Amino acid sequence: MLRGSLSITVADTCYITCPKSRIKVILHYLEEGWLGKAQNRVLGVIFNYDPDNDSVTRIKDVPEKDVLARLEGCWQDQVRYTMKDSKSRLNVESQESQLLIDLNPLWPLPKIIPPENQQLPNESRRLWRGVTEAILNKQYGQATKVKQELEESQREKAAARKEHGADFKPRFFTETLVANGKPELSDEGRQALRRLQEGNYHLEEDVNTNT
Questions:
Q1: Quick one: pLDDT band at residue 210, thresholds 50, 70, 90?
Q2: Do residues 189 and 172 touch, judged by C-beta distance below 8 A?
Q3: Which residues lie closer than 8 Å to 155 by C-beta, 6 or more apart?
């Protein structure tokens, strides 16, 4: 029998581009392996690219001639980089790696959140409280049950909106999804953020959107 504990992991790909310098970065956060693999690993490559023909999305597809540097490490420990020596034309793998960042002495800032009795019914900590409590009490079956009930409730609300031809409109942002990945606060969102920064957590529930 194999036993383990719950942990948070990241598995995704991030892109950073600069059309002016024609440099692009691909960061690949690796999915956790079951056995024998390091956790929280990130791989990356910095390379020259063509802004008018930006088609490379995977590290392995980057032409070696375009590579400027490579990154590798653990996003909860140390990340190192290796520059490509253009004069000697050596591959980056043969160069000595340098420390880019050491995250060990860094600590996340504590979250500033409203007391639960001042949170709206659909705010994450209040909405998912049953799931959180079940996990903390190691009642994983109950956590799954509550999670499924919440998800089914969301599906029912989405189906009801579709039936009535109503589009979901976020309360604190201008759009649900944005192509450039930069969400924009609505007027009400900016007002709420300003009040939060002042320590005023009070929000009236919107009866039309239940938010």
A1: low
A2: yes
A3: none
Burial of 109 (C-beta count, 10 Å sphere; 0-12/13-18/19+): exposed
Output the DSSP codes for the chain.
Answer: -----------EEEEEEETTTTEEEEEEEPPPPSSS--SSEEEEEEEE--GGG----SGGGS-GGGEEEEEEEETTSEEEEEE-BTTTTB-GGGSPPEEEEE-TT--PPPP----GGGS-TTSHHHHTHHHHHHHHTT-HHHHHHHHHHHHHHHHHHHHHHHHTT-----SSBS-S--TTS---B-HHHHHHHHHHHTT-------TTTT-
User: Is pLDDT of 155 > 60?
Assistant: yes
Of 24-28, 46-50, 178-182, 192-196, which gets the smallest average pLDDT?
178-182
Residue 90 pLDDT: 46
Residue given tokens 């953020």 in the structure block: 193
* 128-135: long-range pairs with CB below 8 Å, 24+: 135/6
